[in-house]
Amino acid sequence: MALFPASLPAAVPLLLILLVAAEPPAAYADTDGDRGMKWYSRVFAFGNSLTDTGNAAVFPVTAGGPFTMPPYGETYFGHPSGRASNGRLIVDFLVEGLKVPQPTPYLTGRTAADFLNGTNFAVGGATALDPAFLASKGIVTFVPISLSNETSWFENVVQLIKSSDYDQHRKIMASSVFYVGEISVNDYFFALMSNNSVNVAASLVPHIIGAIRSALTLRRPWIQSTPSSSISAMIAAGARTVAVSGMLPIGCEPQQPALFPGGPGDYDPATGCIARFNDLAELHNLALNKMLSELRLAHPGRTLIYADIYRPVVSAVASPASYGFGDTPLAACCGGGGGPYNFNFSTFCATPGRLPAPTRPSSSRGTGSTSRRLQTGSSHATC
Question: pLDDT, tens digit, for every residue of 206-228?
């Protein structure tokens, strides 16, 4: 998901917070000459397709999917880049702004050297909760990867780094930004599609927040290794700066109003989004903020940041021209359903039969452009 590459309202505030946040102690941080300016050295990223830069492209279940074909990647990379976007993702802008290397997609690396400059564990289609737990609630998933799997992969990297240079391990963790991109939108989407009930989806909120908390703090047995081993959560492994993304306005994603049409009172008059689904997103964000506040008290000396991506998206949907978009912000730019949302669940941007979203002339920052769209073919915002 490439959130607004031109104006970047979602990524810029997070980047600014990171640049002024409490930095790692001098013993761990890299310095910039005589000025003693501390800088981050790498990014470790977790999440789903909103953060994935190449894992789903090689993961057997998803390899060769639509996002590996044009028009994905066309506006920045000039070719499919392993991202479910035509451009860059928030994590790409963070890397650029922090002046650190692109993190290696975990499934494309092998040795400690591959991961020393940062690692991206995110996988398109991943959920926060384990598929088995979701199945016990009657919720069907499509990609057998959850946040706990990504945490296990992180432990693999930690062990590789320790085995190659144990003395550097704590410094590497402390001088890194840990970015937990949005990870639970798939849990809610699958719950809505499986049960057609926002109440069932809302019942997942405490479980999802618990899963994120565990990924940040909990040490638990590592079943792939010896009984005495454990999976090191991010903070336990030495992370000192962690940014956690909140939930998107779910009711503004094209598939939701297309699949769950309602009456006039079901829509937010300012955006046209489905209000009850956005209420679910706000419930999630409230619980996530509360959990992070608790962790700040429990872990002094760590910087735990809530990254708001809800308000920037709502703002762009409500005033698309202000961000350089056309005047149909809820329509998928290359879906296949036509109508106000141009959505078809089986039609992605790279599949035959995809249709451009309708548009009418509208000003785009004085350029007169009408080609920039806010939504791609399923549930990803783009530009």
Answer: 999 999 999 999 765 444 443 33
The contacts found for 9-12 with CB under 8 angstroms, 24 or more apart, are: 9/312, 9/315, 9/316, 9/323, 10/90, 10/307, 10/308, 10/309, 10/312, 10/313, 11/90, 11/93, 11/94, 11/97, 12/93
> Quick count: other Cβ atoms within 10 Å of Cβ 240?
26
Taking the complete model, does pTM exceed 0.90, yes or no?
no
Q: Could you tell me the domains of the chain?
A: 11-325 (3.40.50)
Q: Which two tokens stand for residue 105?
A: 């997609």
Long-range contact list for 30-38, CB < 8 A, 24+ apart? 30/175
Work out the number of other CB atoms within 10 angstroms of the CB of residue 24.
26
Q: Are 138 and 195 within 8 A, CB to CB? A: yes
What pLDDT digit, counting tens, does each position of 143-198 carry?
Answer: 999 999 999 999 999 999 888 765 688 889 999 999 999 999 999 999 999 977 89
Longest dimension (CA), the chain: 64
Residue ranges of E strands in 310-354: 334-335
